[in-house]
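tokens incoming
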């Protein structure tokens, strides 16, 4: 997962981006650029995926041989209103959806 590396390397005090600007760069901006409708922002009627993490503990542990290892500090993840990671533990729910053609 490249997100923790991006957050730690480029956002925060004394870095290139504020945490807010970094978040926008990896959520709202790409969604808008790709034409994804009702995605990338937390707004009424949007299909928001939400990640709650501890900034100080957010560290990537994955590598090329084990890309699916969750990063440290990842407290909660919600995908399409379903809790996927709950209090640092995976729930094994598969709430994601493949987006194709219409980008719904």
């Amino acid at each position: 997962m490249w997100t923790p590396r991006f957050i730690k390397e480029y956002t925060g005090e004394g870095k290139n981006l504020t945490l807010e600007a970094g978040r926008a760069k990896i959520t709202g901006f790409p969604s808008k650029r790709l034409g994804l409708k009702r995605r990338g922002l937390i707004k009424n009627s949007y299909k928001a995926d939400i990640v709650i993490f501890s900034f100080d503990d957010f560290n990537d542990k994955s590598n090329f041989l084990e890309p699916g290892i969750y990063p440290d500090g990842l407290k909660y993840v919600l995908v399409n209103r379903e809790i996927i990671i709950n209090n640092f533990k995976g729930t094994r729910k598969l709430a994601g959806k493949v987006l194709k053609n219409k980008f719904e």
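note: The longest helix spans residues 3-10.
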